[in-house]
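Proteins fold reproducibly. Look at a sample protein:
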Amino acid sequence: MEPPIEVGADLRPEVAVRLASQGVRLLWRDDFPAARRLLAAMGKRLPTPAPDFYRYRQARRNRARVLGMVLVEVGPDLRVDLPRAPDVTAAFRAAGGAPGLVPLTELLGMLSAYEWRVKGVPVAALGARIHPHYGVFAPTRQDYVSLVTRAPLSRVRTAFDIGTGTGVLAAVLARRGVPEVVATDISPAAVGCARENLRRLGLSQVRVLETDLFPPGRADLVMCNPPWLPGAAHSPLDAAVFDPGSRMLTGFLAGAAAHLTSGGEAWLILSDLAELVGLRSRSDLLSRIEAAGLRVADRLDAPRRRHPGTDPLAKARSQEVVSLWRLHP
């Protein structure tokens, strides 16, 4: 890889876009706020995403690649030695970053994520805050959480929360009185995040395990809120939105019946966003449920939400419905 070229405030945004598009890395050596302004100016000069969802994703990937060519240096002391640079030490350490040349976009993401981690996200269903870690999807939208708060729940002694993330849904089940909840996630970052949140909430009846999908044993309720869109994930946060080959959805449905007690119930929390952008049909989802030996006993829908913006995803989300599917063997 060619070494980066050192740049500063005299670099024009159109030149930066041209160089970055050619794969030239740009090491910023000037005022830190000016670097943020350069990123914003470069973004305005990149092509507008196309109305087609696939080309929209391609344009977003290209945008991330180009803007990711602007680098800053993080020293061994985890500091950025630039005029007016913020103290990034705590955020960088929390995100598990390593000293060296770091894309400015990535560093700004770490700072933003750390702010969420410190302040927390208020969750009305808990009357408390959930503190997401870097790379773990934050429960900033509450529609799927509200579905878990109002779904019928009786005679449930044990529950599994598959793909727990921040642990927010496991916490809701515990607060609703489920005596024993086992939350799982394949991501070590998510496991650490969930454990910290549940400990902060004082919910000792929830155990968090690092495992792929189901823990050993059976439960009266098995629940999963998988990524809502089939497709490749290109970043840690993408992994909370995109499920390559519908692996998690398929795995949950295929294993649910075998992990239910007699009379138990599975909850699948899923948006119809994939249907709206043409990535999956409703008949395909129902076929997957049937092939797993499950039947739909009921479905609870959350109200539609307004989404600002004109990109394909924003338009689809204005029509999106998030549902909790109650499934029986």
Remarks:
- The mean pLDDT is 92.
- The longest strand covers residues 260-271.
- The chain has two domains: 5-117, 120-328.
- The CA atoms of residues 52 and 113 lie 30 Å apart.
